Records
---
Amino acid sequence: MSVYGRFPGARPRRLRTTPAMRRMVAETRLHPAELILPAFVREGISAPVPISAMPGVVQHTRNTLRKAAAEAVEAGVGGLMLFGIPEVKDAVGSQGTDPNGILQVAIRDVKAEVGDDLVVMSDLCLDEYTDHGHCGVLDDDGRVDNDATLERYAEMARVQADAGVHVVGPSGMMDGQVGVIREALDGTGHQDVAILAYTAKYTSAFYGPFREAVASSLKGDRKTYQQDPANARESLRELALDLEEGADMVMVKPALPYLDILRQIADTVDVPVSAYQISGEYAMIEAAAEKGWIERDRAIMETLTGIKRAGAGTILTYWATEVARRLQGGE
Ligand code: PBG
């Protein structure tokens, strides 16, 4: 009996006593296969270019990308999400639909390197390719033109699938994009190419470092097409539409500020759910760790565990290979 009488009536601390006890009762375990590595490949460079706001992440050359893909396989990582940075950008993002554009070339490179040992995915969006930096083409008034953009996306889906990608990841938040892409794929014999839909994609300050990563020329913001952080219900609407249009997997992005959305979606669907731990989430931890303000490795594992606990089956993270190695080491 305690000196305080009736309390404590129960002792949950018994299950926290030793590392073995904690390991045994852990409800959430990370596994390398559920991690997806986002990677940048830039046209026309002869050495990798560091991204200052994302220490440890680079714009790859075609060669170093192949190496990174091989290392990811070695570490047991589940997938790779590729982003291309072309030498030339224009109003319609021509390089995004050129069969010899950097992303298409990189898909072929990576497929030649790893074959089917890794799920090869590609970003299907125009912002890396347009000189104005928007995710779609603009109308005469400078607004992002939804339906004209869909035509460009259909073409992107075709060239990416022709290059051999396993999964396309439409990230532009245009209405109808999943349906149009599904039709374009099916109409060109690419029935087996899957769609990872960026279903609940919020307009976010945490995309900042990514803009440097893809040398984005965006002025302004994406508030007319990405979701408002204040809203939860419209995520369920986006979810219903994406599933109806044929999404094979759905994603919530960013991850950490939107764990409630992730949980709601995970509780609703019967397809795999993904979360994207984005560039700003990466940068915050790296920056605080560099200052000695937080323990880097623990913070990384804690955020990934939290994202998985909230309902993510797969997680896109720039730490994928590093964490996969750590997990292989038995941590
Ligand atoms: C759009 C796209 C973005 C990211 C992935 N796909 C940028 C944006 O929507 O502004 C961000 C990823 C990250 O920040 O890590 N193609």
---
Amino acid sequence: MGRPNIYFIGAGPGDPELITVKGKSLIEKAHLIIYAGSLVNPEVLKWRKPDSRVLNSAEMALGEIMEAMIQGHKDEKTVARVHTGDPAIYGAIGEQMEILDREGIEYEVIPGVSSFLGAAAALKKELTVPDMSQTVIITRQSGRTKTPESERLNSLAAHRATMALFLSVGMAQRVQEELLTSYPPDTPFAIVYKATWKDQKIFQGKLENLEKMVRENNITKTALIFIGDFLKAGEKRSKLYDKNFSHEFREGA
Ligand code: SAH
């Protein structure tokens, strides 16, 4: 046990400046960096020590990743395991933490800016809009990785809340069909491809045209799908700033 020297770090959605101060200083300190090469912007590694060792977990099996981490721990090195966005969202850190727990090895998790928040910032939208939606559903289309039956998209759609879909753009046809069971066909959607990266792209339209938009623009990965009326809330001022609305800090007129 003892002081942790293994850190799971959220790298943020893409823009390297969106890593936390804590995440950056651990990258500066790390002797061994294992990063998810398929999604993490390699620019976050620019702060590393020149003699640090860098491994790309996209090319490694779980066993190899854990072996490298545990060896680093034994050698009393600082190990940075760098995940995209925030590691708690579809980050597969659970299985890694379980193995470390079993081995009695301490670690720490440094949160990051999840891509859905990077994407909301890119859209310049508030996900929770008074009188429209006060709930954000973060989910994915069931595919090769099955979602539990009670969390099927068509049942979640019944809430008509703000929805952010990860890992689903490759199944746009099914997303559209399942969402249309509850959301009206003219509900706005936004697809944010590579949010906060230099080649970020935004596609917007109505739910009934979602699949067409994905197909015509050949969007196959690194994209989030947002659905909900929050996307058309621009013209509607938040009640918080309405002078007739009283809240804790200010009496309404
Ligand atoms: N832990 C990550 C998610 C990892 S799962 C997070 O918190 O963001 C990988 C999925 O996340 C991708 O398939 C895509 O749906 C989404 N994603 C990750 N980075 C993204 C980005 N910069 N822009 C849009 N979607 C992104």
